[in-house]
Structure formats: structure tokens, C-alpha cells
Amino acid sequence: MLAAVLHEPQRIRIDELDPPEPAAGQVRVRVRAGGICGSDLSYYFKGKSGDFAVREPFILGHEAAGEIDCVGADVTGLVRGQRVAVNPGLACGTCRFCRMGMPNHCLDMRFMGSASTFPHSQGMFRQFIVVGATQCVPVPESLGFAQASMAEPLAVALHAVKQAGSLVGARVLLVGCGPVGCLLLAVARRAGAHRVVAVDLSGKALQVARSVGADETVNAADADQIARWSAQRGTFDVVIEASGSPAGLDTALRSVRAGGTVMQVGNLPAGQSPVAANLVMSKEIRYMGSFRFANEYAVATDEIASGRIDLSPLMTHSFSLAEANRAFEIAHDRSQSMKVHLSFD
Ligand SMILES: [Zn+2]
Ligand SMILES: [Zn+2]
To answer: Rounded to two decimals, what is the model's pTM?
Structure first.
């Protein structure tokens, strides 16, 4: 089978590898589409994502959908040819956090396409993957593979909005309008937000944010506007930080009203981030975080399959596996792309 293997920063090679064999309880999935995520871009361009560095040849990708190719022993309910979205995370089910209902903090999590452990957990940008049967969520035949692969970032957005608490009637600021940011926006709308304002440095991103439901968009370079939001103990009930930049977090802490919530979803650079943290104290900010997702993956596939969340403005480009390097370059260029997919024939 062919696999897109990252050998060094900005150099993916298409290598021929042996297809993996499923063991009991596992299935082999023929991958048909995979989305490039911000963490994939960090690994590709910087050799690391947040605190996790690439230390061996590495197959990226954790957002994918495909068809069941063959099933191992003891697998029921999945048959060859069935169309599935694949949850990249497999929690152990027995550790302290799994027992607390927090599988995203599993002490033995195997999350595909992540360098958080060594050897790395290889990812999904290859023709065949072997996963646990429980990681596969059947989707309707009518749903495109690339759309189905959006279940992963949508699950991230659903988890974050759940963590933030009720948004009913809330004035919400979204900082950072990448693919996850725009999905957060769509989920916040469905969760009853009264008004959602979106901020980003990219005009293209702000345009997509408007098409998925932002009431108002503001360029992050507009320092006067951010100063106005900061005045009189802040403006927004809830600020969702989805830029993963210290500057974005600073905007969030300044713009939230006293007693409001800042939800950190963006993956900040490794190490410490200089921000005006004293505002957490002086404005009594509830500063919270959201990491990946817990049990929202199946709901995310349903939301997509039912058409309740319109993904079309987000899905801007698709490339073949052979064009992987080009796909990463385009995905990195926020002036022209939003979510870029690899498609596998
Ligand atoms: Zn992702
Ligand atoms: Zn566990």
C-alpha cells in the first residue's frame, strides 16, 4: 500500500509499505479521504506540534473516512464495503481517567497521527489502516468521504462548547477562524448563542466565518476595536480561543467581561505563553481548556450526516495522495484555503 510518510520537515515521500493485518476485535479500513489539521501542519513545517516533537519517519493524519476492507475475528456489525468515519483515538477503558468518563485523558491513549508517544502512533494518510472496530462509525452511503472525515474536528468543537457551559443567550467572541474555529462558530450558533463575533487576521477566514453564521467579523489587526471590547471590564460572556497564539489568548482575556468564561481550544506554542494572566484574577475569569474530545465522535458524524451543520464553506481543496506536499503548502496558506483534504483512489 502507499503511505504519505514525513521524513523531515516539508518532505513527505510516498512510500510502499505492507498493508497491516487486523487482529481480533479490529478491522482494516481502506482510507478514502483525510483532512489536514493544524497539528499536521505543525508537524510538517516545524517538526513538532505543541510539546510533541517528531522523532522518527511519521505518517500524519487523524481525520479520515473510508470503507471497511476486512474484519478480524470477533467483529460484529461491520461488513466489507461499509462506509465509516474513523475515530482516531482508542482509550484503554480501564485507567483512572477512563473510569472517570474522561477518555481524552486516558493514560494509555492511542491517538493516530500523534507524536505524543514514542514510537509514534502512526496516522491515517495511507491506503489502509487497522483500527479497533469500536473506532468505526458507520455513515450513510450518500455522505461523501471528505465530509465524513470532518467528524473529528466537529467532535473537537462539540466537546469544547460542552465544556464551556450554556451558551443560551450569550454574547460570544471567537478568536481564530480556522476550520476548528469555524466549526466552533457553527456549534455555538446551534447551542443558542445570542450573538457571535469572530476575529482573525485573514480576510479569507473571516469570509468563511460569516458564511457559517458569524454576526460580525473583525480583523485582529484592528487594535482600536479590541481596546473597546476591553473597556469597562470587558464585553463578551464567553470567548473561545481557537487561534492557538499568545496574542489571541491576550485578546480573549481582555475582551471577556468580568465573571465571563475563556475557553482555550487552540494549541499554544510549546512552553510558556506571555499573557496578561493577572486579568484572570482581577476580572474573575473562568479560564478553561478543552482537549480533543471525549464521547462526541458519534454525535458529530450524525450532525454531519443529517446536514445540520453545513460544511461546504469550509471544504476548499482536495488533492491526491501523490500531491501531499502541495496539499500541505496550500493548507498552510490561509489566504486561499480552509480545510484541505487528501483523497485516495
Ligand atoms: Zn484535527
Ligand atoms: Zn484509559
So the answer is: 0.95
